[in-house]
Design brief:
The chain has about 270 residues and is an alpha+beta fold. It has two domains: about 90 residues, no CATH class; about 150 residues, DNA integrity scanning protein, DisA, N-terminal domain (YojJ-like (1), CATH 3.40.1700. The protein has ten helices and seven strands. Strands 2-4-3-1-5-6-7 form a seven-stranded mixed sheet, with helices on both faces. The radius of gyration is 24 Å and the shape is elongated.
Length: about 270
């Protein structure tokens, strides 16, 4: 009997360790998901409310404690309302394939070279452009309005689409599975009041979309001739050829595989 109890206790220890590891992994993935988004600010706000709630209990502030107690009783509903976009993005994230999952390292690198070449060329001519690259979260929900192309990615085609005299130059171009899937797509604009008033419609559309999904958006400004990359609602501006190539390589290119593809350690 004693041996059975000892075995059960050892097995219980393993289950407890597994339980802690799973919870830690889930928390870690949630932190990665909301990192750099407005969700972090909302979490800080909830943490402040929780601290005030505890302080009201300790300090005997009964009315304030009663109000916060009723508020926190509905905390699950509050979290669902506040973080609906982040929850939606997390659920869609499960089971999706990356943008370059079906492409080799060489193919993915060549595609990004064409995109970078087109963006730099358009920037030098101050031709406005918005290019969206799908990653793990699908973009089909945002492609109902747009012209289907299903074309190979080439710098000449990208430049032609965004030519001011082209009927497709308004809206966004979307890249999916290594191809240009659609052009002239209209994206949701950001509702973030903290966004600079200096940013135009293309930048706001890029921020708005990437607040909802994990896509990468590239914006070429026709006013300044500058190139920007937007991920997770955060914008990185004034990118030159090398910095744009480096950012896209980090965000969307597949990792080299095999002994030949491994990077040399520096």
């Amino acid at each position: 009997m004693g041996g059975f109890i000892s075995s059960f206790e050892n097995f219980r220890w393993v289950l407890d360790a597994l339980d802690i590891a799973l919870v830690a992994f889930i928390i870690y993935r949630i932190i990665l998901l909301i990192k750099g988004t407005r969700a972090v600010q909302m979490l800080v706000g909830l943490a402040v409310i929780l601290i005030v709630y505890v302080a009201s209990q300790v300090g005997g502030l009964y009315t304030l404690n009663w109000l916060l107690d009723n508020f926190l009783a509905s905390i699950i509903l509050v979290i669902v309302v506040l973080f609906q976009n982040d929850i939606r993005r997390a659920l869609i994230h499960v089971g999706r394939n990356p943008f370059f999952a079906d492409l080799s390292y060489r193919e993915g690198s060549e595609i990004m070279d064409e995109v970078v070449k087109a963006c730099v060329s358009m920037a030098s001519r101050r031709t406005g452009a918005l290019i969206v690259i799908e990653r793990e979260t699908g973009l089909n929900d945002f492609l109902e309005v747009g012209i289907e192309l299903d074309a190979l990615v080439s710098s000449d085609l990208i430049i032609s689409v965004f030519n001011p005299h082209s009927p497709l130059h308004d809206g966004a171009m979307v890249l999916q599975h290594g191809k240009i899937s659609r052009a002239a797509c209209f994206l949701p604009l950001t509702q973030n009041p903290d966004i600079s008033k200096m940013l135009g419609t293309r930048h706001r559309a890029a921020i708005g979309l990437t607040e909802l999904v994990d896509a990468v958006a590239i914006v070429v400004s026709e006013e300044t001739g500058k190139v920007a990359v937007v991920v997770g609602g955060k914008i990185t501006r004034d990118l030159d050829l090398n910095s744009l190539r480096r950012v896209l390589k980090r965000l969307v290119e597949p990792r080299p595989t095999g002994k030949k593809g491994k990077k040399k350690s520096s």
